[in-house]
Design goal:
This protein has 369 residues and is α+β, with helices and mostly antiparallel strands. It folds into three domains: 177 residues, no CATH class; 53 residues; 84 residues, no CATH class. The chain has a five-stranded mixed beta sheet with strand order 11-12-13-14-15, covered by helices on one side. A three-stranded mixed beta sheet has the order 1-9-10. Strands 3-6-5 form a three-stranded antiparallel beta sheet. Helix 5 crosses helix 9, helix 7 crosses helix 9 and helix 8 packs across helix 9. It comes from Jiangella alkaliphila.
């Protein structure tokens, strides 16, 4: 009989893996090692990874990540779930090939692009696109316009989409460099790194997923990466894994020596940016957000809000605008919880704002909505 883990035990285990129970000391865990441990950082918004790392690393400063982008130690590419992720070089060269079936399938099923691309030699389009972006980084609009004369019956945006699907494209700096701005310009990862793509190891990625997000089910794993039919991979690893069940009887897998703290371990307030992977990497997300609040998070005019964690669970949302950090809880907070939110909020302001703006900045905790 497998041991049963409660929802709260799963919460604390996941927070421990995610470095959200206690920030790691940079003397023990570097920025690069943290990015790799977490399996990359979702980076739909260019500056989200900075906030993700600030919530997890003690003493993190924006220039520490910016430096890694500029020296090509980390890159931003489309990877798991078809979304932009910030990854270490070894992960970029192997993880994207592992999830490549997602991108190939998208060419057949994408509601916007599949029909216009029917009958098009997409491999020829990709080859032409490779020459163009390897010559110099280009925006998607520029790339589509340059491809269009060779395929005049196909819209430029559809041709550029082929490149995104069949090539591994890096968003090059200054895009996503803290304190700078720039268009999304793309070149191939092989050109940017002067290294070829490498054969992936599914077993390794399964283990690393469990190390960062476990204990987890096969469905959870598939939600994280976007692939399907991974049961066979997990079954091969079963003899080397711990097996649990959740309170509904769902089978969960974990690394034998991974941390599984007691359910009553305190969880500090944390401010998470939009698209943080801890909120998007399980089929059953109730370990960090209940179904009611999940619907609240997903209904804000298509805009995903930043999440506030109180006692380890999503308890509201926040925004930072004009040196004012506004926090809107989903439930009434106790006086001590408000004090914790305000204290962590002040730390966030000191991280995010120029030094001269911090003294005039403020944290506003609104009534529960």
């Amino acid at each position: 009989m497998s041991d049963v883990l409660t929802r709260r035990q799963l919460n604390r285990a996941t927070l421990a893996r995610q470095l959200l129970l206690d920030r790691a000391d940079r003397a023990d865990r570097s920025v690069l090692a943290t990015v790799e441990h977490l399996g990359g950082l979702q980076a739909q918004q260019p500056f989200s990874p900075y906030y993700q790392l600030w919530s997890r690393l003690r003493g993190f400063r924006p220039e520490l990540l910016a430096r890694l982008l500029l020296d090509r130690t980390v890159v931003r590419i489309a990877a798991q779930r078809g979304t932009i992720h910030l990854l270490s070089v070894p992960d970029a060269l192997t993880l994207r090939p592992w999830v490549q079936p997602l991108y190939v399938a998208d060419l057949r099923t994408n509601a916007e692009h599949a029909k216009p691309l029917a009958g098009v030699d997409v491999e020829a389009v990709a080859a032409a696109a490779r020459e163009l972006v390897d010559a110099e980084p280009r925006t998607m609009a520029e790339l589509g316009a340059l491809l269009a004369p060779s395929w005049p019956s196909v819209g430029a945006a559809h041709l550029a989409h082929v490149a995104r699907a069949l090539l591994v494209l890096v968003q090059v700096p200054p895009r996503a460099v803290w304190g700078q701005s720039g268009q999304t310009r793309l070149t191939t990862v092989e050109r940017w790194l002067d290294r070829p793509l490498a054969a992936p190891s599914p077993d390794m990625f399964v283990r690393r997923y469990l190390g960062a997000f476990g204990p987890a089910s096969v469905a959870d794993l598939q939600t994280w990466c976007g692939l399907t039919r991974l049961r066979a991979v997990v079954d091969e690893l079963r003899p080397s894994l711990r097996v649990f069940r959740d309170e509904t009887g769902r089978e969960l897998f974990d690394l034998p020596d991974a941390p599984r703290p007691d359910a009553d371990v305190p969880a500090p307030v944390r401010f998470l940016p939009d698209f943080d992977n801890v909120l998007r990497s399980h089929a059953d997300r109730t370990r960090v957000i209940d179904d009611v609040n999940r619907k609240r998070m997903n209904r804000r005019n298509g805009v995903v809000p930043h999440a506030l964690l109180v006692d380890g669970e999503v308890a509201g949302w926040w925004r930072l605008e004009d040196a004012v950090l506004t926090v809107t809880p989903y439930r009434p907070l106790s006086a001590s919880e408000v004090a914790d939110v305000e204290a962590e909020g002040r730390e966030l302001l000191e991280f995010a704002l120029p030094v001269g703006d911090v003294d005039a900045a403020e944290v506003r905790v609104m009534p529960a909505e």
